[in-house]
């Protein structure tokens, strides 16, 4: 009658061990300025979608929505763009203040779209459905560029044609009024400088375009 080795209820220590020793989330080692700016822009856009009325998801986002987003950003701009009726329309260096609105500079918007286009695909979006690459967006940007160039008197494009102008006829260019015209030395309107310009709006619980009262029936 000896039952040897009664198997004691050895409580196997399976209890511990699981949760605690977490895998420390890999911290990204210093993003480049471009990368961190891109991340901020992307978050700003996602936040814009979240606040959008009616609700809008990324999957349903079209080029038209992107343009809407760009228009929304204009209120945070810092670039004076003269209205057609302003006395300073077309003047690069107006001698005084005017009530024309501040807008996002074209170069800022252009760079912003480039970052968002990349961010969209990096977050899993298919290139062929990338709303930031939509043709409408490209056209919009071109229109902004042209209208700002006129309003501010700053050409964004370098002159390409340099054919010798055939000075035919005696169009006496007397009235030497237009100084400046010859200059063109200005290093094509600083796209390159544009770091801070497109600052994300961050807070300002931005209900773009007035509160739309939800008509509950
Ligand atoms: Zn003005």
Major beta-sheet overview: 2 strands, antiparallel
The quaternary structure here is single chain
N to C succession of SSEs: HHEEHH
Low-confidence stretches: 1-20, 165-217
Mean pLDDT: 74
CATH fold annotation of the domain at 33-155: DNA polymerase, domain 1
Question: So how many helices?
Answer: 4
- CATH architectural label of the domain at 33-155: Orthogonal Bundle
Shape: elongated
Kindly report the spatial arrangement of strands forming the biggest sheet: 1-2
Strand content: under 5%
Number of strands: 2
How much helicity do the residues have? 25-40%
Cα Rg:
29 Å
Instruction: State the name of the first-level CATH class of the domain at 33-155.
Output: Mainly Alpha
Bound ions, cofactors and other small molecules, one mention each: zinc ion
Biased composition (Low complexity): 1-25, 167-176, 186-217
InterPro entries: ALOG, ALOG_dom
Region (Disordered): 1-36, 151-217
Family: Belongs to the plant homeotic and developmental regulators ALOG protein family.
């Amino acid at each position: 009658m000896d039952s040897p080795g009664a198997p004691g209820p050895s409580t196997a220590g399976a209890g511990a061990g699981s949760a605690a020793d977490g895998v420390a989330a890999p911290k990204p080692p210093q993003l480049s300025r471009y990368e961190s700016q891109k991340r901020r822009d992307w978050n700003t856009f996602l936040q814009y979608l979240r606040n959008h009325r009616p609700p809008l998801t990324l999957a349903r986002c079209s080029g038209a929505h992107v343009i809407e987003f760009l228009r929304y950003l204009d209120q945070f701009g810092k670039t004076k763009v003269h209205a057609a009726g302003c006395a300073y329309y077309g003047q690069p260096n107006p001698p005084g203040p005017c009530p024309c609105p501040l807008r996002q500079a074209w170069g800022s918007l252009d760079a912003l779209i480039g970052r968002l286009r990349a961010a969209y695909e990096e977050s899993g979006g298919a290139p062929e459905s990338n709303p930031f690459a939509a043709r409408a967006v490209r056209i919009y940007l071109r229109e902004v560029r042209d209208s700002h160039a006129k309003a501010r008197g700053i050409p964004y494009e370098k002159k390409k044609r340099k054919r010798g102008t055939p000075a035919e006829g005696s169009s006496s260019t007397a009235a030497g009024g237009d100084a400046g015209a010859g200059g063109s030395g200005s290093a094509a309107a600083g796209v390159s400088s544009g770091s801070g310009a497109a600052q994300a709006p961050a807070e300002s619980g931005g209900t773009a375009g007035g509160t739309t009262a939800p008509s509950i029936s």
